[in-house]
Design brief:
Helices cover 43% and strands 12% of the residues. By secondary structure, the chain is α+β, with helices and mostly antiparallel strands. It has a single domain (2-115), classed as Glutaredoxin (3-Layer(aba) Sandwich), CATH 3.40.30. A four-stranded mixed beta sheet has the order 2-1-3-4, covered by helices on one side. Strand 1 (2-5), helix 1 and strand 2 (27-30) form a beta-alpha-beta unit. The chain is globular.
């Protein structure tokens, strides 16, 4: 299982604490230093089952600077995937991925249901 994260992210820290407390093994991947490919982002998107908009870090600085709230409405799915892959700071985190599913963000109930 891999967890894409940003080390100073408070939500990522909560997820790691929960995973550690429940003795669930994982591999960390820095979402900015080791950028995801468009294929990886697409794989996460499909495994998550969520609308693609839910993958965006809407409270992030880059999202706001690019005025994506308005721009995303007119973008194709392919353009959104490419945009998400272009800058790790645009991705909502943490992103937990295994062979069959992906969890975007950290919701303890969701982690408990899928991992315990």
């Amino acid at each position: 299982m891999r967890v894409y994260c940003y080390p100073t992210c408070g939500t990522c820290k909560k997820a790691f604490k929960w995973l550690d407390e429940n003795k669930i093994g994982y591999e960390k991947r820095h979402i900015v230093e080791a950028k995801l490919t468009v294929k990886e982002v697409e794989d996460i998107y499909k495994k998550s089952g969520l609308p693609i908009q839910k993958m965006f870090n809407t409270s992030g600085k880059v999202y706001k600077e690019l005025n994506l709230k308005e721009k995303l409405k007119d973008m194709t799915e392919k353009e959104k995937l490419e945009l998400l892959a272009s800058d790790g700071m645009l991705l909502k985190r943490p992103i937990l991925v295994n062979r069959t599913f992906a969890l975007i963000g950290f919701k303890e109930d969701e982690y408990r249901e899928k991992l315990l």
